[in-house]
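Page 37, continued from 36.
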């Protein structure tokens, strides 16, 4: 991580230290991590002796060698490969050897505490990732001299940094390379090895205090030195020192709390012994023993006071400075340890003076710090003994906790809501009814873990304990009690759903409650019993009955499919075998139950379309293998009831649910398809016969003569056939031949109602079997004829049906095997394509005429659907790509409404064919330019359908941005855009000195927007291609009419800031007066010898421009160029193109 200082560097460090202070003869120079190689050469006996003494004593007479992170830096060693000789290596070996080496260190400390302490100092510095030199000078100076030496500076000559600080009884000097604060040190390194190092480093501090608590910790020497060392290094400007020593100090304080707790327990035990002794009679009381107990209590109390003083020194010296550190990891460590202190030693730390730091840091800008605060508070609120001390904190920071449930970090929001759940369970007077109302709304959150946590709070607080419970008399059966309890909880759930009024989908509420209230939600017998009770008994209105049915259906879906809802994010997880088995068991139970009771429910609620539509969804979740004699008989009754409901209703939701349920029951894999298919065929055949009879009566001599009643019957029958045709294959009933006469021309003008046209155009032909090309052509012609219908809804549905038919046909062309069927080749004729484009221009790119906001939103949704259907034809290759040019024209004008659709279409067409896509962009810009020129030549102001020059130029800029940053992929496309643009400007123009400029010359200003996307060699190639159309005399011409050419040429020659100066310009849509004053000149332009001033003119082509520029002398390029682009094979090669040498040929 950090380069180890060389011998030369180290000598310079020593000289520098001598210059800063004069080391007394007793000064000790200690190299971090040194003497490892010499110890490896020692014998086994020497190693055994070395472990018995101090590491510093081992190295006292050895030559100082280079130190560092050792093998922990360069590789990941295996434990036990090499015997550890330093404390740092002991930590890296693991916890098994840690306690033994700490005991050895304590023995060495008792023998020679200065040398042992220097080893410990080196350990902390080495754990910071420092490969430096530690020099210890005994503290013998006056206080003023000591404070003047407390420095942390950089020696730029030697390239080293040093820090001098007081660690009583020494003044330590630590020297390290300049890149110490590069961000790489053990605590921040990645990988399992370094993650293990962090835990073992913390464990070492804890073991050290634990093993010393009965001996040297109270000698007023060890802890003073360690605390002063950690305090000084935690205040360092070097992040490695600050982070490592702050973590060590926090863990040291936590370990000291353990010692204080042990002393408190000993004091309490001794005091109880003293009370027992004093309670004895005077004859049996032992005064000597009582005095001994009292002396022990006093001694223990003195030790506890000493420990608390150490804790106070660490808190004030480290925590108060570092809990607001700029490094988030340090702030997180402080908050995490503070919560531990409050929980372990609440008499001292669980006070308002310490809790305020926890409350303040809940406003931290980093989510990890806020999370540590919330997790720490969960531990405090989970202990009932500590709750009385949190009253002031509740009143002061309750609002902040409630607001954190909407935190942008999902984990913080979830844990905060769990904390509030703990608070609600522990006390009733902290959260008000308004607070609960705000928290309950989170059950509709899009983040599922947050919604599930809110569901748990809702269930425990509101649903599990409903306000009113029905009184039950004595002797009531247990089953009845259970059913009544479920009913009461369901009523409480319905009241919450109705009172909140936030959402219209019960399925999301059921998903939120599933983890906490699944037993209630899966109690389908109780829910069914509630629905089948008499209205006077169940006490539910019609709306509440519908909500209970929604809860029932949502619970069935959740039990079978799991938590997979649109719009609700959840982490991807693998369904374990136990969960899969639970789903299968639930599916089997609900199948057995609803085969018996669903016909009764359909009979009871068949009059309500909403309830019937919900109940008809349940058969879609039946288990396909449930087959028995009872189930077959129950299924027959269910199919009969389903047929009656479908025949009764024409609501789209009911028909769609029934069609999907029939599809599920008729599947080959189900055990009852032999019963379900005949039942479905009977229902469909009945509708087909009814439609044939109605059609025969309505069509008289080619005219539609049905009355209103028969038209309504025909309409309902078509709706039912349409719904079933969308879900299933009804090609065997010949529906196309039956309904196609309705679309003949004489019928259209003969009085067919608009509703029938709407149904026919919407669904009647989208799925019709067109196995022959003639049918497809006839269908397209009839839909085209419907585009001129008087009714707007009929026209829109005919357009959508036509787009869907053409898209489906194109899909069949790609998936059918020619060897088996032969593709249905059908290409829309020019008349049809023009009609589709005209429809889009007329009904999409027009301003909505709506009064209310709801109508505006609905109108925009309708127009977006029409545009998306048309763009699908282009993306799927049904229409030529050039048909998208008219759509691309409105990219900027309707950016807020249709920008995403047009941009996606542009991206898809570029993926299909990048060259043809570029031609479409060129066609779009050129058509806009020509329309603008034609308008300005006629002398009329720009009409509604003509865009201004600035808008065309902005559109070109947006088109250029769609090519992205990878210019290599777009080389051919950009070259084609420039080539076609140059040819468009100079087509048919003969170069003469006296000739006027090209009428399309100002198009070069638009074309210059694509110059920045060209690679440097491509710019030269395009410039050379431009030279073929203009000569040197034209380039050197400074007339106003040639300024677009000069600007375009400057954009091709631009290379950075200088080129941007050359090509800077302002475009305008109206003529302005010339302004040649110096106040309009930028400093760059004014000081340039090639500046020609500011010009504003009305171009002969009719396009008004304003341009200030700086022209540099032209460069002559070669005249002859190849006439073709890079071949497709060369472009698609895997070899990387050299953008400095490869040119695109034009």
């Amino acid at each position: 991580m950090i380069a180890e200082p060389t011998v030369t560097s180290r000598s310079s460090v020593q000289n520098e230290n001598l210059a800063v202070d004069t080391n007394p003869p007793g000064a000790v120079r200690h190299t971090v991590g040194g003497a490892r190689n010499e110890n490896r050469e020692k014998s086994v006996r020497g190693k055994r002796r070395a472990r018995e003494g101090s590491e510093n004593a081992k190295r006292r007479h050895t030559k100082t060698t280079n130190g560092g992170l050792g093998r922990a830096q360069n590789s990941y060693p295996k434990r036990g490969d090499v015997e550890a000789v330093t404390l740092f290596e002991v930590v890296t070996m693991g916890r098994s050897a840690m306690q033994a080496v700490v005991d050895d260190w304590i023995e060495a400390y008792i023998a020679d505490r200065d040398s042992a302490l220097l080893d410990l100092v080196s350990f902390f510095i080495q754990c910071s990732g420092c490969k430096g030199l530690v020099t210890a000078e005994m503290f013998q100076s006056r206080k003023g001299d000591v404070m003047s030496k407390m420095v942390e500076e950089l020696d730029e000559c030697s390239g080293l940094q040093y820090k001098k600080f007081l660690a009583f009884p020494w003044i330590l000097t630590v020297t390290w390379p300049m890149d110490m604060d590069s961000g790489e040190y053990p605590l921040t390194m990645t990988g399992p090895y370094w993650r293990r190092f962090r835990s073992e480093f913390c464990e070492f501090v804890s073991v050290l205090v634990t093993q010393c608590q009965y001996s040297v910790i109270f000698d007023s020497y060890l802890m003073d030195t360690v605390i002063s060392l950690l305090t000084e290094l935690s205040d360092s400007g070097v992040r490695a020192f600050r982070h490592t020593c702050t973590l060590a100090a926090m863990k040291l304080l936590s370990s000291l709390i353990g010692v204080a707790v042990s002393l408190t327990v000993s004091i309490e035990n001794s005091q109880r012994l003293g009370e027992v002794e004093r309670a004895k009679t005077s004859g049996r009381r032992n005064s000597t023993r009582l005095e001994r107990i009292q002396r022990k209590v006093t001694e223990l109390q003195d030790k506890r006071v000493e420990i608390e003083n150490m804790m106070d020194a660490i808190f004030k010296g480290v925590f108060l400075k570092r809990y607001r550190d700029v490094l988030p990891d340090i702030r997180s460590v402080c908050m995490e340890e503070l919560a531990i202190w409050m929980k372990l030693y609440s008499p001292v730390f669980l006070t308002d003076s310490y809790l305020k730091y926890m409350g303040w840091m809940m406003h931290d800008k980093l989510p990890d710090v806020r999370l540590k605060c919330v997790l720490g508070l969960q531990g405090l609120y989970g202990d009932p003994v500590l709750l009385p001390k949190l009253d002031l904190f509740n009143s002061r920071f309750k609002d902040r906790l409630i607001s954190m449930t909407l935190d942008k970090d999902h984990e913080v929001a979830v844990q905060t809501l769990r904390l509030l759940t703990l608070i609600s369970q522990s006390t009733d007077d902290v959260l008000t009814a308004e607070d609960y109302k705000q928290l309950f709304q989170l059950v509709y959150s899009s983040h599922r873990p947050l919604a599930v946590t809110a569901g748990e709070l809702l269930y425990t607080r509101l649903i599990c304990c409903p306000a009113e419970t029905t009184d039950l008399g004595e002797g009531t059966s247990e089953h009845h009690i259970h059913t009544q309890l479920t009913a009461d909880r369901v009523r409480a759930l319905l009241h919450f759903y109705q009172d909140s009024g936030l959402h219209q989908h019960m399925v999301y509420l059921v998903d939120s409650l599933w983890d906490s209230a699944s037993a209630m939600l899966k109690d389908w017998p109780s829910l069914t019993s509630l629905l089948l009770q008499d209205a006077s008994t169940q006490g539910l209105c019609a709306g509440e009955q519908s909500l209970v049915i929604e809860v029932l259906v949502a619970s069935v879906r959740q039990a079978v499919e799991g938590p997979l809802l649109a719009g609700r994010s959840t982490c991807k997880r693998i369904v374990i075998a136990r969960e899969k088995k639970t789903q299968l068991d639930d599916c089997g139970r609900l199948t057995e139950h609803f085969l018996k009771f669903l016909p009764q429910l359909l009979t009871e609620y068949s009059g309500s379309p909403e309830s019937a539509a919900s109940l008809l969804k349940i058969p879609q979740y039946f288990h396909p293998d449930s087959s028995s004699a009872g189930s077959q008989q129950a299924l027959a009754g269910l199919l009969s009831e389903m047929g009656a409901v479908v025949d009764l209703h024409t609501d789209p939701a009911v028909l769609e649910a029934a069609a999907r349920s029939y599809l599920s029951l008729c599947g080959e894999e189900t055990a009852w398809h032999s019963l379900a298919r005949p039942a479905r065929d009977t229902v469909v055949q009945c509708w087909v016969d009814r439609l044939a009879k109605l059609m025969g009566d309505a069509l008289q001599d080619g005219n539609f003569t049905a009355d209103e009643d028969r038209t309504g019957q025909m309409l309902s029958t078509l709706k039912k056939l349409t719904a079933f045709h969308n879900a299933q294959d009804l090609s065997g009933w010949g529906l196309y031949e039956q309904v196609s006469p309705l679309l003949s021309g004489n019928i259209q003008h003969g009085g067919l109602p608009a509703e029938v046209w709407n149904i026919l155009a919407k669904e009647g032909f989208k799925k019709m079997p067109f196995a022959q090309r003639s049918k497809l052509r006839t269908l397209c012609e009839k839909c085209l004829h419907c585009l001129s219908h008087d009714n707007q809804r009929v026209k829109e549905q005919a357009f959508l049906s036509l787009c869907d038919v053409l898209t489906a046909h194109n899909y069949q062309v790609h998936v059918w095997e020619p060897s088996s069927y032969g593709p249905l080749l059908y290409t829309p004729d020019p008349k049809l394509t023009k009609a589709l484009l005209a429809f889009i221009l007329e009904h999409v790119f027009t301003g909505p005429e709506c009064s209310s906001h709801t109508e505006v939103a609905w109108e925009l949704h309708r127009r977006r659907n029409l545009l998306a259907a048309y763009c699908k034809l282009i993306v799927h290759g049904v229409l030529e790509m050039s048909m998208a040019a008219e759509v691309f024209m409105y990219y900027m004008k309707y950016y807020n409404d249709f920008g995403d659709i047009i941009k996606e279409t542009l991206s898809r067409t570029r993926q299909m064919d990048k060259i043809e896509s570029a031609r479409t962009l060129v066609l779009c810009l050129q058509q806009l330019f020509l329309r603008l020129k034609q308008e300005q030549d006629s002398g009329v102001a720009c009409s509604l359908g003509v865009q201004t020059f600035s808008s065309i130029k902005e559109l070109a800029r947006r088109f250029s941005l769609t090519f992205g940053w990878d210019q290599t992929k777009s080389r051919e496309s950009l070259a084609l855009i420039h080539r076609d643009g140059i040819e468009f400007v100079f087509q048919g123009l003969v170069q003469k000195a006296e000739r006027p400029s090209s009428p399309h010359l100002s198009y070069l200003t638009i074309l210059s927007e694509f110059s920045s996307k060209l690679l440097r060699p491509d710019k030269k190639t395009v410039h050379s291609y431009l030279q073929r159309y203009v000569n040197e005399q034209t380039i050197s011409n400074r007339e106003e009419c040639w300024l677009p050419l000069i600007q375009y040429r400057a954009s091709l020659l631009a290379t950075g800031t200088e080129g941007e100066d050359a090509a800077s310009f302002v475009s305008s849509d109206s003529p302005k007066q010339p302004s040649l004053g110096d106040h309009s000149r930028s400093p760059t332009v004014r000081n340039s010898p090639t500046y020609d001033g500011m010009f504003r003119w009305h171009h002969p082509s009719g396009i008004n421009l304003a341009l200030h520029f700086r022209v540099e002398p032209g460069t002559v390029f070669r005249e002859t160029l190849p006439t073709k682009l890079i071949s497709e094979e060369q472009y698609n090669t895997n070899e990387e193109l050299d953008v400095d040498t490869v040119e695109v040929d034009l």
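Residues 239-279 form the longest helix (41 residues). Flag for discussion at group meeting. The longest strand covers residues 160-167.
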